[in-house]
Design a protein that fits this description.
Layout lengths: L14 H5 L20 H38 L10 E5 L2 E6 L4 E6 L4
Antiparallel strand pairs: 1-2, 2-3
């Protein structure tokens, strides 16, 4: 038979009490805004660049999805016969285009000359 652990009735300190206090406000956690690291200018500059690239990526993702749907529609409208594995493969103008209908996947690769 397993022994039961004794439960302590002492209150465990809060996260704010563990982290630190602000003068005059015992037990209050420091806000991150109150912390000013030496490299704050660099952090802000990189964070702004990150947000700019993130916005560009989101916009590009939306455009990519639109073009993917358009490409799938054109491949479906071409009335091609699927291969034995169910995929459609086309070689056109130096591109290898593959569509997997079941998974709605599109792959476009540029063929490299040997």
């Amino acid at each position: 038979m397993a022994k039961k652990k004794k439960v302590s009735k002492e209150k465990e300190p809060s996260m704010a009490e563990k982290v630190g206090t602000r003068e005059g406000n015992e037990g209050e956690q420091l806000d991150l805004i109150d912390i000013n690291p030496e490299n704050a200018k660099e952090i802000v500059a990189i964070a702004r660049q990150y947000k700019k690239h993130q916005a560009a990526r989101m916009e590009a993702g939306s455009k990519e999805k639109t073009k993917k749907e358009e490409l799938k529609a054109f491949i479906r409208d071409a009335n091609l016969q699927p291969l034995e594995d169910g995929k459609y493969r086309l070689r056109l103008a130096g591109l290898l285009i593959e569509m997997t209908p079941r998974d709605e996947l599109i792959t476009v690769k540029e063929e490299v000359e040997k």
